[in-house]
């Protein structure tokens, strides 16, 4: 039963509340893997799902995984069945999507995460966006782009960041996960190694 609803008649939708709360903060994140916390005054209910859609809201009592690829959804569900938590399942899904849908998500991207702690009613956000390479210096940028350069040209290789996904996954598991990272990556590794049907 959701926290704050002892009779189970209303279901807590923490991510909707989290999104609203974080949006209202108007915070901008800079740097890699920044985390901040905020306290929510109230959780959302099914009334917050009033939107026009061809699909009905789906409720589950023991966990749920939703994504665009069935094999990735199965990766997350298997983690939940093994006793993992939502963060473990999310990392399993993200890593499986990196294999099955590399055009949509992957190791070459970034990782952003909202985490709801039901016991403290607190939302934490993680910014796993990439940073500039560690060996890149301002002297190198000035040498390559010109001393008078006020900003890095759009097509310069110096505009490319080091991807933050893998570090974000590891940081999320370390901070909020309940299973080892290797367990969460197991399905993705198997899909990459053995292959999978493409439809």
Characterization of this structure:
This protein is of the alpha+beta class. The protein contains 6 helices and 3 strands; from the N terminus they run αβααββααα. Strands 1-3-2 form a 3-stranded antiparallel β-sheet, with helices on both faces. A hairpin with a 4-residue loop joins strand 2 (111-117) and strand 3. Helix 2 (70-81) runs antiparallel to helix 6 and helix 3 packs parallel to helix 6 (181-194). The longest helix has 15 residues, at 86-100. The radius of gyration is 20 Å and the shape is elongated. Mean pLDDT is 78; it is low at 1-42.
Supply database-style keywords.
37% helix; alpha+beta; 199 residues; 11% strand; disordered N terminus; three-stranded antiparallel beta sheet
Quick summary of this structure?
With 199 residues, the protein is of the alpha+beta class.
Secondary-structure topology with pairs:
Blueprint: H1 14-25, E1 32-39, H2 70-81, H3 86-100, E2 111-117, E3 122-128, H4 138-145, H5 165-176, H6 181-194
Helix pairs in contact: 2-3, 2-6, 3-6
